[in-house]
Amino acid sequence: MPFRKVAIIGLGLLGGSIGLAVREHLPGVATTGYDADSEVRERARELDLAQTIADDPAEAVRGADLVVLCVPVGAMRGAAQAIAPGLSEDAIISDVGSSKQRVGKALAEELPGHHVIPAHPVAGTEQSGPDAGFASLFHQRWCIVTPPEDADAAKVAALVKFWKSLGSTVEVMDAAHHDMVLAVTSHIPHLIAYTIVGTASDLEEVTRSEVIKYSAGGFRDFTRIAASDPTMWRDVFLHNKDAVLEMMDRFQADLGSMRDAIEADDGEAMFDLFTRTRAIRRSILEQGQDDARPDFGRGHE
Ligand SMILES: NC(=O)c1ccc[n+]([C@@H]2O[C@H](COP(=O)([O-])OP(=O)(O)OC[C@H]3O[C@@H](n4cnc5c(N)ncnc54)[C@H](O)[C@@H]3O)[C@@H](O)[C@H]2O)c1
Ligand SMILES: O=C(O)C(=O)C[C@]1(C(=O)O)C=C[C@@H](O)C=C1
């Protein structure tokens, strides 16, 4: 492994999981952690999420050859400013943020002359906080690395190797492309879940208790997604605004077409779409990229 010491800034679901995963998969690699919230630091010590938990961000990154920022995307710039005084010259500074263009720009602006290589493990749950982390989170999951054009190839290779060691399949991609793809596959689905659960709870004739009572089926899946962390997702929508708005326009147009099909009793249009979407789900299952993988979901519902 090209790294001797990994510093993790932000010790919630992602940061905690990285700490636990490094201990399991890379036992020779030292870990330090820091979180802006002193209660999270305390809990991280109890849970042993990293070998050392520092009370100061610059102290946490001192001597680290890989620093991974695991804070909400809106907090990345501030976290970069806070670690700057402690960074080694040849350290890689990466992150796990769900949107990449603005995060990459903020990190590059705050850390000129450093090796900034953003990344996004496409792995998570609706849970947050230090108790939510688990070592197998990244198993059989994509991790998308979005290096700037002038990135040092050896440093990119080292980061790719790190994520592979934690069980991920790695793809290197342009940040703008990442943001467009993830807007469709992750950000808009969360927006739809937040909206539909909000709509259901707002409806006067569907009381809150009935929403809970009858949510055993498909609606329950939406409520899981809609329970995701409000700070994280507010930041994602604001930081990937352009791609999210573009995809929302597409989605609204498609929703309008579906409305027209229902109004016109056009069963064929509906049947064709539902057949296509069923095939997509089946191909996802065939590729093994699903919650049905053996070590996922248990104990994290
Ligand atoms: N939750 C997911 O499913 C998921 C999946 C992939 C990527 N991500 C990304 O990972 C990042 C972290 O998400 P999470 O789910 O672990 O959130 P989380 O709420 O579980 O943890 C975030 C932690 O960051 C800390 N923090 C906030 N500002 C800080 C700062 N300036 N310095 C140090 N610590 C700070 C918070 O106190 C909190 O403990 C986000 O950027 C998110 O977009 C999340
Ligand atoms: O499974 C979930 O609960 C998730 O929402 C995980 C999920 C996703 O949309 O796939 C959420 C945000 C991330 O940036 C990566 C993964």
Characterize the structure shown.
Pathway: Amino-acid biosynthesis; L-tyrosine biosynthesis; (4-hydroxyphenyl)pyruvate from prephenate (NAD(+) route): step 1/1. InterPro entries: 6-PGluconate_DH-like_C_sf, NAD(P)-bd_dom_sf, PDH_C, PDH_N, Preph/Arog_dehydrog, Prephen_DH. Its EC number is 1.3.1.12. The chain is α/β, with parallel strands linked by helices and 301 residues long. The protein has two domains: 5-173, NAD(P)-binding Rossmann-like Domain (Rossmann fold); 177-264, 6-phosphogluconate dehydrogenase C-terminal fold (Orthogonal Bundle). Helix content is 51%, strand content 11%. The strands form two sheets. Strands 3-2-1-4-5-6 form a six-stranded parallel β-sheet, sandwiched between helices. Strands 7-8-9 form a three-stranded mixed β-sheet, with helices on one face. The radius of gyration is 21 Å and the shape is globular. Residues 9-15, 35-37, 40, 70-73, 75, 78-79, 96-98, 121, 124-125, 128-129, 229, 232, 236 line the site of nicotinamide-adenine-dinucleotide.
